[in-house]
Amino acid sequence: MEKMMKNNYFKIFVNVCLLTIGALVAAIALEVFLIPNTILDGGVTGISIIISKLAHVPLSILVLVLNIPFVYVGYKNLGKRFLGRAVYSMVVFSVFLHLFESVDAFTDEILLATVFGGVILGAGVGLVIRFGGCVDGTESVAIVISKKTNLSVGQVVLIFNLFIYGTAGFIFGFDRAMYSLLTYFITFKVIDFVSEGLEQAKAAMIITEKGSDLSKEIYSKLGRTTTQIKGKGLISGDKEVLYCVLTRIEVYELRKIVEEMDRSAFVSISDVTDIIGNHIKSTNKIKKIKN
Fold first, then answer.
1. Distance, C-alpha 67 to centroid of its chain
2. What is this structure's pTM?
């Protein structure tokens, strides 16, 4: 038991360190490459940059304040663990933005700033996402909208960002808006690579002896239903196989749920390129779940 507790504390320490590094890298990308060249990030950070440049309010404060309602929505849908990691990531991110605010731009060559800023930003944000954190609450809200509409999470985020870049085009010029859009696509692909989420949708296959309990917990915590299949291992005997489709930001929570409820379970996560048919999106509690 003592060894297990030490391992848990070590995992928490490593996660905190990597969340901090990710937030640091993302802040450097913004303050040293992108913002000095008036290249915008997407999401809440992009809105914060626009307001900061127009109203001369510190970006670090805006990022923290404007993310509050988004973090609350994420907490309501993803739970307390998400809240703790998201708040920590955003606070650290905000602190680093403040620290690097007075640092001179690394380059004033717009194309270099766009490419390298996008790659570095994607690496930082991807690292944060991989370890369950969040520096921009847009995706957590996009998950909620996706569950109530026919739009995917990626489509919601893209629509939101296109609105931001369109607004930036009228304010700062459409050349800057186009460079910002290019940065967004670069960042998005690097985030995918770093966080191991090459597609927006993920499929999880869980082989367990506690299928019903796990299914209820997954639905309760993530609002995702599972398909239960009877299986039999060559050596381990009768098993239950759970199949669940979810988004990349929910993968971390799924892993934690399985670790807490059945450490002997086998979990496989794979990419989903297309979803055909009705995909359960509602997070309302099922009135009656079969035991």
1. 14
2. 0.68
The tokens for 277 are 């048919």
Do 205 and 193 meet the contact criterion of CB atoms below 8 Å apart? no
Q: In what order do the strands lie in the sheet with 227-233?
A: 227-233, 237-247, 201-208, 266-272
- Those residues whose C-beta lies under 8 Å from the C-beta of residue 77, and which sit 6 or more positions away, are 140, 143, 144, 223, 283
Question: How many residues are there in the chain?
Answer: 291
Burial letters for 7-33: b for 16+ Cβ neighbours within 10 Å, e otherwise?
Answer: eeeeeeeebbebbbbbbbbbbbbbbbb
Confidence of residue 223 (pLDDT cuts 50, 70, 90): confident
Q: Can you read off the two tokens belonging to residue 228?
A: 């239960």
Q: Is 279 helix (H, G, I), strand (E, B) or coil?
A: coil
| pLDDT at residue 282 tops 50 | no
Tokens of 2: 């003592």
Judged by phi (left if over 0) then psi (alpha if -120 to 50, else beta), residue 274 lies in beta
pLDDT single digits (tens) 202-212: 888 999 888 88
Q: What is the CA radius of gyration of the chain?
A: 20
Contact 51, 60 (CB under 8 A): no
Cα–Cα distance measured from residue 272 to residue 260, given in angstroms and rounded to the nearest whole number: 26
What confidence tens digit (pLDDT) does each residue in 226-262 have? 888 888 877 777 888 999 988 777 888 888 899 888 8
- Pure H helices in 131-210: 138-148, 153-172, 174-195
20, two tokens: 């901090």
Domain assignments of the chain as residue spans, ordered by start: 2-195, 201-272
In CATH terms, 201-272 corresponds, of 3.30.365.10, 3.30.70.120, 3.40.50.720, 3.50.30.20, to 3.30.70.120
